[in-house]
TrEMBL record:
Family, as annotated: Belongs to the class IV-like SAM-binding methyltransferase superfamily. RNA methyltransferase TrmH family. TrmL subfamily.
Name listed for the protein in its UniProt record: Putative tRNA (cytidine(34)-2'-O)-methyltransferase
Top EC class for this record: transferase
Main subcellular localisation: cytoplasm
Length: 173
């Protein structure tokens, strides 16, 4: 199973966008305190739209609490990573839980955490004109690369034809 982990997220709109991405990709979300917002804030609910009730998520008191309850392979997204996010094999043939950890918007993941697992620190390639991408964009980039390598698991490849969707033949009609 794939997991997105937000270490001390600060901005509710980013977390709301990530919640929507997690629902769209059947990915569990883990939130590590302290949070820079309340989970019932109007901004957060607005960003996650009507999907928050479909979200599989858990909140932890701190990073040690998270690590004690979750076993698998941890990947850390950091601008200091020396390998691209596309250079890892996420095909997950052994059915291990894969955790993709993203730091808080202002300072990222603490160095003391990163330096304990340098071989799993990864970076999204970009120019030197910016320090980092927005965290919700980074989550989307990474989880879709993971899913691409996993052949998109059970995600829909065509628009369903039901009360909430227009159907796969919408463009032809």
């Amino acid at each position: 199973m794939n997991h997105i982990v937000l270490f001390e997220p600060e901005i509710p709109q980013n977390t709301g966008n990530i919640m929507r991405t997690c629902v769209a990709t059947n990915t569990k979300l883990h939130l590590i305190k302290p949070l820079g917002f309340s989970l019932d804030e109007a901004h957060l609910k607005r960003s996650a739209v009507n999907y928050i009730d479909k979200l599989d998520y858990e909140v932890y008191e701190n990073f040690d609490d998270f690590k004690s309850k979750n076993k698998g392979i941890y990947y850390y997204l950091t601008r200091y990573g020396r390998r691209s996010h596309t250079s890892f094999d996420y095909s997950n043939k052994d059915n291990l839980d894969l955790y993709f950890i993203f730091g808080k918007e202002s300072t990222g993941i603490p160095k003391k955490i990163l330096k304990n697992d340098l071989s799993h620190c990864l970076r999204i390639p970009m120019t030197s004109n910016v320090r980092a991408l927005n965290v919700s964009n980074s989550v989307a980039i990474v989880i879709y690369e993971v899913l691409r390598q996993q052949n998109f698991n059970d995600l829909l490849r065509e628009e369903p034809d039901d009360d909430n969707h227009k159907g796969k033949d919408y463009l032809e009609r």
